[in-house]
Write a structure and sequence with these properties.
heterodimer; A: about 325 residues; alpha/beta; Rossmann fold; 2 domains; seven-stranded mixed sheet; five-stranded mixed sheet; about 35% helix; about 20% strand; B: about 350 residues; five-stranded parallel sheet; two-stranded antiparallel ribbon; about 10% strand; globular; binds thiamine diphosphate; binds magnesium ion
Chain lengths: ~325, ~350
Amino acid sequence: MTRMTMIEALRSAMDVALNTDPNVIIFGEDVGYFGGVFRCTAGLQAKYGEERLFDTPINESAIVGLAVGMAAQGMKPCVEIQFADYVFPAYDQITQEAARLRHRSNGQFSCPLVVRMPTGGGIFGGQTHSQSPEALFTHVAGLKVVIPSTPHDAKGLLIAAIEDPDPVIFMEPKRIYNGPFYGDHSGKSVPWSDHADSEVPEGHYTVPLGKAAIRRSGADVTVLTYGTMVYVTEAAVKEAGVDAEIIDLRTLLPLDLETIVASVEKTGRCVVVHEATRTSGFGAELMAEVQEACFWHLRSPIQRVTGWDAPYPHAQEWDYFPSSARIARALTSAMED
Amino acid sequence: MAAKKTTQKAAAKSNVSGEELTQYYRDMLLIRRFEEKAGQLYGMGLIGGFCHLYIGQEAVVVGLEAAAEEGDKRITSYRDHGHMLACGMDPNGVMAELTGRIGGYSKGKGGSMHMFSKEKHFYGGHGIVAAQVPLGAGLAFADKYKGNGRVTFTYFGDGAANQGQVYETFNMAALWKLPVIFVIENNQYAMGTAQQRSTSTKDIYHRGEAFGIPGEIVDGMNVLSVKEAGEKAVMHCRAGKGPYILEVKTYRYRGHSMSDPAKYRTREEVQKMREERDPIDQVRDMLLTGKHASEDDLKAIDKEIKAVVNASADFAKESPLPDVSELWTDIYAEAEVQ
Ligand SMILES: Cc1ncc(C[n+]2csc(CCOP(=O)(O)OP(=O)(O)O)c2C)c(N)n1
Ligand SMILES: [Mg+2]
């Protein structure tokens, strides 16, 4: 076990994958020589050579398109899209080629491909460097969508994603690359080394896709969340003084409904939290699922805390980004009968 | 010094007046000092997020603006401060946008990468690499449709030049003979990736040949060479002959953005460029050797520019933060808001 940041953990996962399977290759913008803008691949090109890890031109569409072709031949490409905000030129390749190759070839071909991308806000990135487009991918049959929230999970999930036989969209909450974020942007930043979940095993291990984790068990209300919001929710639970159960979904698609339902049946109350915009966000899906599965157990309306239905702002980031105070208010509302 | 010789040649050839030269000096110096100040404000935490400085590339926009006429359009990427200052936008409004204040061109909604001015026909700063290229052709289409004789300067980088939509645009622009000048600002790097790591050929402009678009290489460190090439391109477009490509070889002195330690190139490489090719020093030399200006004249200009830039920083610090309600304005036309 070593303490790692999420960046180090992701790097370690790619190191393990490159080491164990010669079919694994990694490419993307600035990932090779430069080591990635967030340093996730730093040092890996020197270790594995330019055949296994290389730079591409700024070509999101062709990066993913090439990866689909490689994957159809049994290779295991793990590509980086530098920011989730740049994925849109590749959306066509992801949704119409990667996601459906298995189905439309009647199972003759598959697409064991991972598309990694830093996602989310809280870094003062403005409208083209802060978005959370996960719902655009959870809407597509044939994809899996993963969002880790700890270094431990980041490594285990990324290895699992690379080994998975189907295309995985792997979204990395960049606000917590270097430490958990509890929503206090003016306070001192907390390093991962102070957090238990930065204990990362060396070598190979996996965290299974499709399994949520209970970050805090509680009896009063269930909070469904993922990524950076796990920590902001932890802060909110303290503020509100409720005995909440915090479920970190980790994989949005396929969704671990079993864990969710067991929790909501126990607590009878539910709050859904994400950074992404509200309308048609993944929270809407969560509310629908909980409502269908747990209707007779619910004691109050399901609450939802999200980013506003507005472009991600430059100047007013902290009015936009869901705060612990907003989540605490939702928790309090959920507790009213 | 080789640089000096070529600049003197260029000065003689293009027959620019001392007055014009002085104006280019002033315009380039404004950009340089403005960017230095932005860098300082960034360091002080007054500007946050992404901020891409234009230092080193000043001759490109100043030379091309010298070739433009009233009503011509310009559109560029996120490295946009120089373009805005060169087309006459107010330094106060630009700086205040960087600090995210209500006095900024986009009231703090856009930040460094996303500013616009209808008045100056500046169609933005765009954060997504190459996304502005088809837009530039669309602007040119609209001008052609209106028959107003205007041209559009569409700027993008060497890295952007590999995006697929650039070539979709080249084809359409050639097919429909759109009055658009594609300006490839080739500063040799796309973020941490040198051009030869990402691009199959050394020059990029000749890709236009495949679409029947003429183009040429331009010395982007020399404002007169840029102006001259710009005039040729403008004439081509205004004559209804369709698009033109200028691949302007330039160099950025600073990191890609403020957080870039620039480990992918040597200090010496940057130093050499600064010492031998600096666009502002070149014009300074021309002004002094041509006796168009004295050291004292230049000092006075420096002082003037410094005052303008300091005033913009003061404005940008004092302008209030936008109200929270601004989050929801300008998403739809007013009438549609419930
Ligand atoms: C679609 C997209 N992909 C990637 C990026 C990230 N990115 C921003 S600037 C840049 C390099 C662009 O280089 P170049 O076009 O040469 O312009 P320069 O920065 O040198 O002015 C990259 C990769 C982006 N903003 N948009
Ligand atoms: Mg460049």
